[in-house]
Design goal:
Length: 253
């Protein structure tokens, strides 16, 4: 049965892959994120475009970048809802090093709408499973198993009072500003902010409530500075690395 589901999902991805233009019915409500453009020194810009269903439910996220070495890099994510919960994301990837990678993410919730299980089914990496327990102190226990692991392991995701992930249970820690994330207002995204779903090509975890100010890992750190619009969402973000400035700009509907 699982193989049938995966096959159907991949057929959907292939049938949608030519739908690059966002139609009038796929526009977001005013204030919803429309696109994110990342600029890097000595590289072409990367663009992430968002289309919607019903104004503030995601239909797709599409990433595209013209590589200096190997043509266009792209990946696309298609979203499927039950009521206001995201239950499936179907993705296809192509980069310099990855060709025809297809991934389906499945999400399960309890009766209160809390995410309790996330399954990642990849035609390259196999099946990865996360079972979540929501603790009384607000943190989340993540019992996970990847394809190459013989047993489940457990880590604790630390969550602050604003419902932002501040520690991934391994070696990364995060701090945040008090402004709204570009993804704030997308229905269903508020349930996934701690799930390691690798959607946006920068961080493993999707920001929903606030914006990351600093990331610290091992003996390294990175700091971000923002400019905001009147809705308190970012217009731009800068960070410095190896004496270069990397800029991200945000456009909204």
């Amino acid at each position: 049965m699982k193989k049938i589901k995966v096959l159907i999902g991949l057929l959907i991805i292939l049938s949608c892959s030519s739908e690059d233009e966002i139609t009038e019915n796929e526009l977001g409500n005013p204030g919803m994120i429309k696109s994110i453009i990342s600029s890097s020194p000595n590289e072409n810009d990367a663009k992430i475009s968002y289309s919607y269903q019903d104004g503030n439910k995601l239909k797709s996220i599409a990433y595209s970048k013209e590589s200096l070495d190997d043509g266009t890099l792209d990946y696309k994510h298609y979203f499927f809802y039950e009521d206001n919960l995201i239950v499936r994301i179907e993705s296809s990837y192509r980069t310099e090093n990855i060709t025809n990678l297809n991934v389906i993410n499945y999400f399960e919730y309890d009766n209160d709408g809390k995410l309790i299980k996330f399954t990642r089914d990849s035609n390259r990496d196999g099946i990865e499973t996360h079972n979540y327990s929501h603790l009384s102190n607000g943190n989340i226990s993540d019992s996970y198993k990847r394809q190459n692991m013989s047993n489940f392991q457990t880590k604790t995701l630390e969550i602050n009072d604003a419902k932002n992930l501040v520690s991934d249970g391994f070696y990364r820690t995060y701090t945040y500003d008090d402004k709204r994330s570009p993804h704030y207002g997308i229905i269903g995204f508020d349930k996934l902010y701690f799930a390691e779903i690798h959607l946006l090509g920068v961080e493993s975890y999707p920001e929903y409530y606030n914006n990351i100010k600093t990331i610290t890992w091992n003996f390294n750190s990175r700091s971000f500075s923002y400019k905001y619009n009147s809705d308190l969402k970012p217009l731009s973000r800068d960070y410095e690395d190896m004496n270069y400035i990397f800029t991200t700009t945000y456009q909204y509907y």
